Amino acid sequence: MDNEKVFNEVSGLVNEMLELVRNYDVAGLEKFKADHSQGNHPECIHMLDSMIELAKIAPENEEAREFIKNEYTPKTARD
């Protein structure tokens, strides 16, 4: 697989994951984790678990919503 194809595939997965967390889509994040966790590094699995927990509390927690807005929204979309 050439570098551009790998980059595009990874970019697509990251964008999908970030969109799910920005929408507080817990079920979508859990499905994403189930679909993509096979053979992944433990830190990647931990990151997905953290995003799932954050998405769970965000609807009721302003601090979590602000964190998602500041950390998981592209800067150009925030400005």
In short:
This protein is 78% helix and 0% strand.
Explain how this protein is built.
With 79 residues, this protein is mostly helical. The chain has five helices and no strands. The model has no long low-confidence stretch (mean pLDDT 89).
On the 0 to 100 scale, the average pLDDT is: 89
Poorly predicted regions are none
**Span from first to last CA?**
36 Å
> Based on CA inertia axes, which overall geometry fits?
globular
Contiguous helical run count: 5
Secondary structure category? mainly alpha
> Taking Cα atoms only, what radius of gyration do you get, to the nearest Å?
13 Å
Strands, helices and their partners?
Layout: H1 3-22, H2 26-36, H3 42-57, H4 62-72, H5 75-78
Helix pairs in contact: 2-3
Descriptive keywords:
79 residues; mainly alpha; 0% strand; 78% helix; 5 helices
